[in-house]
Amino acid sequence: MWLPLSLAAFFICAAYPIHNPDVFWHLAIGRAQWDQKTPLRSEPLAILSYPQTRRATSLGITSPQSGVPLPWLGFEWLSELFYYFLWAAAGAWGLIVFKALMAVGTGFLSDRSLAHRGVSVAWRAAAMLGLAWVSQTRWMAEPELFTFIYIACLLAFLHTAEEPFSHKNQLGAAALFCLWANLHGGFIYGVSIYGLHLFFSKQPSRVKFRAAAVVAAGTLINPYGWRVYEVPFFLLANFGKLHVGNVEWGSPVLLKNSGLPVFAAIVLSGLAAASHLHRRGKEIDPAGIACLGLFGLWGVLSYRHLSVSSIVIVPLTVTLLAEAFGSRRAAPRWMGPVLTAGLALGWLALARNALALGSPSQGVLWPLYQRGVTEMIARQPWSGPVLIPQHWAAYPAWRLYPQRRVFAYGRLDVFRERLFEYQNAKSSPEVWRTFLDRHGIEAVVEPYPKGYFDGELTDARTKKTIRVLRSPLVPYLPREQWALVYWDDQALLFVRRGTPIANEYRLLDPTDIPYLSALKERGWLNQGLLAAERRRHESEVGPSRFDTALDILMKASTGGLPFHDLH
Fold first, then answer.
1. How far apart are CA 242 and CA 413, in angstroms?
2. What are the DSSP E strand ranges found in 139-190?
3. How does DSSP classify residue 447?
4. Whole-angstrom Cα distance, residue 234 to residue 415?
5. Judging by DSSP bridges, how do beta strands 386-387 and 443-447 pair with one another?
6. Residue 251 belongs to what H/E stretch?
7. What's the rounded Cα separation, in Å, for the pair 388 and 177?
8. Phi, psi angle pair for 462, to nearest 5°
9. Tell me: the pLDDT tens digits for 262-307?
10. DSSP structural state of residue 136
11. CB distance 23 to 95 below 8 Å
């Protein structure tokens, strides 16, 4: 009964609500492809071009000139189209059930591979637990899911087929890689696994060459031909720089990922078991050891690779451990109950982690997607470009297109230059304003800044200059040029003056409450306007985390205003 229970646990552990930041731009790309009835050749959701000509990249690709659409290599075009159809048919529930089923399928294929190699039930149960633990947080509704299950499928094929490199099986592998290369760029992992097993096999050179050629040809059957390799190789070439734009590409060591200690223990255990077998004179699969080293390194270097690597590492390590230590002597009677209890506790911990991510009934964790500010943008009487932080931009790109375009979102190979430009633009107010003007930005969505800076306030009667705390956004988005039209507990929306503005907050800026307090102390605060704008905010958005500070501000005395708790 352990296998059905383990697979059920896999389902539960992956059936958490939609929370990944990129899901909506994948859906938007799928929708754009369906509308155009063809895989895309240019980026449809963002501002059309970089502001000036760029030098050739390391791949020999020249970035577009001003006015030229950004080039688009849809290495996951088929999965994005599939996800769009699934969302249109079944909404969030469709995505949740699908990713949970993909987790179950990955676990099942991994277990079958272990069973074929004669691994005992106890070791297989431990393998399923370790695999679920390390990979749990990556069971998101993204094209990456196809790579997870295809890796498990490829390994099962290599370990269970009697002649994995026979002519018939070469054609089967080519079909697998053909579909994989149209679904996700992770097919490059599969090429690595297949290539290592082929290289270390005892097949004649002509068979190796033919198998490699057939599989390579399979990957080239896609709308972009050989260029489908550009994106994976770009990501590998810029491996150490990508975390600047996306924390997923940072090391799990730095991100303090809970799965890393388990992953590291599994890798080290596999190496120790391999060393033990070698000392005993047992034959060790060199392809397996090569995969252990390669994917072990990838998993440690990048959080994004941790889950992918675990699908390779865990079954391999468990096989080595079972061979090295599993049958040396009969296990004592008490071992069975202890093992069962340990596995049960492990699965309960996994289920607890899944529930911490939210109940599947929630569907989508909307507070993560800036739905409020996006809907406010959709209601505005203008249609210009919108600047939104990259980690928030996916849902606005989905919701606002084609009326409005965002500056950039989470596709790093396309927008890495833009993300660096965006970060550098905040080096000074002058650089920032030039950046906004260059791109014709008409609206800016900003997260809440941290802290304040020392500003000035001039007393109209005494002409004295008084030092007062001001919002860090003031010099970057001055009120004479930008109007605050919306804010909630997560973000603020500023619109460039000169565009039609339906309504604005002329006074109530939650990032500038110390300044309002200074105005009140001198009798310069328009209490009626402040009260009216607060009522407007309560009617549009509801309660706010700034309500306590505003209550104090609107009282007769401003003593005790908790400035340090505002952000």
1. 9
2. none
3. E
4. 13
5. parallel
6. none
7. 37
8. -90, -10
9. 788 888 999 999 998 988 888 888 999 999 999 988 888 777 788 8
10. G
11. yes
- Check pLDDT > 80 for residue 408: yes
E strand residue ranges, 427-480: 443-447, 453-458, 465-470
- Which DSSP symbol is given to 494? E
CA distance 401 to 386: 11
Phi then psi dihedrals of residue 40, to 5 deg: -75, 150
First-to-last alpha carbon distance for the chain, in angstroms, is: 52
Total residue count of the chain as it appears in this document:
567
Sign of the Cα torsion 70, 74, 75, 76 reads positive
What's the chain's Rg over C-alpha atoms? Answer: 28
Per-residue pLDDT band at 64 (split at 50, 70, 90):
very low
pLDDT at 242: 60
Query: Residues 266-281, buried b or exposed e (16+ Cβ, 10 A)?
Result: bbebbbebbeebeeee
Instruction: Write the pLDDT tens digit of every residue in 441-456.
Output: 999 999 999 888 888 8
Tracing tokens 């309500």 back to the chain, one arrives at: 547
Task: Please give the structure tokens belonging to residue 165.
Answer: 């490199």
3-state SS string for 346-403: HHHHHHHHHHHCCCHHHCECHHHHCHHHHHHHHHCCCCCCEECCHHHCHHHHHHHCCC
* Residue 87 banded pLDDT, cuts 50, 70, 90: very high
DSSP bridge pairs for 364: 18
Residue 208 burial by CB count (10 A; 0-12/13-18/19+): exposed, middle or buried? Answer: middle
